Amino acid sequence: MSAGAFNAFESTVDQFGPAPLPSARTVLVGLDGSDTAMRAAASAFGFARRQGARLVVTFVACHSSLAALSPAVASVFEHEAAATLYAELVEQVRVFADELDVPVTFVKAFGDPYTVLRESADQCQADMVVVGASQQAGHRFAGSVATRLIRAGHWPVLVVP
Q1: Tens of pLDDT along the chain (161 residues)?
Q2: Whether 60 contacts 109, CB under 8 Å
C-alpha cells in the first residue's frame, strides 16, 4: 500500500508471516513509532517467536495536540505524517514476520490509543499486551496508556522502557 493510499480514518487489517496454529496464544503490541514502542515490538516479536504465539500489532492513528490550535492545518500534517509512519511500520513488521517466521496481524485503527488497544486486546483474546513506557512528563500525573491498560486488569501487561 502506498503512503498516498492511506486514510487515517479507515481501519485496516493485514496478515504477514505463516498462518497461526489454532491453539496459538496471542500477544498484542501497541506500535506508534516511538523508541519505546519499537523496543516493545522487538520484545513482543521475540516473545511470540519463542512461545509459538501469534502477534497482533496495533497501530493507532490519533489526533495530536496540534489539532486544538488549527484543526485544518494540523489535519493535513497529521495525515501525511501518519501515512508515512504507517507505510514504514507496516513494511518493517512484514519483514520481521517473514524473517522470524512469526504469524502477524497488523491492525491500523483510528481513535484514542487506550480505547483502541483495550478493544483490540479483548477482541483478539490477547494472552498478553506489550506496550512501551510513556516518555511524556505529564503522564506521571494524568496516567499513561500503559497505566490505564494495567488498571483495566483484563490481561497481563508488559511495559517496556
Answers
A1: 444 444 445 688 999 999 998 889 999 999 988 899 999 999 999 999 999 999 999 998 875 544 444 455 445 555 677 788 889 999 999 999 999 999 999 999 988 899 999 999 999 999 999 999 877 654 444 458 888 998 888 899 999 98
A2: yes
Q: How big is the chain, counted in residues?
A: 161
Can you name the residues that pair with 12 across neighbouring β-strands?
A: 108
The model carries a pTM of 0.81
Handedness of CA 69, 72, 77, 83 (dihedral sign): positive
Position 58, amino acid: T
**Nearest in space to 58 (alpha carbons), one of 100, 20, 97, 93:** 93
Burial 39-51 (b: 16+ CB within 10 A, else e): ebbebbbebbeee
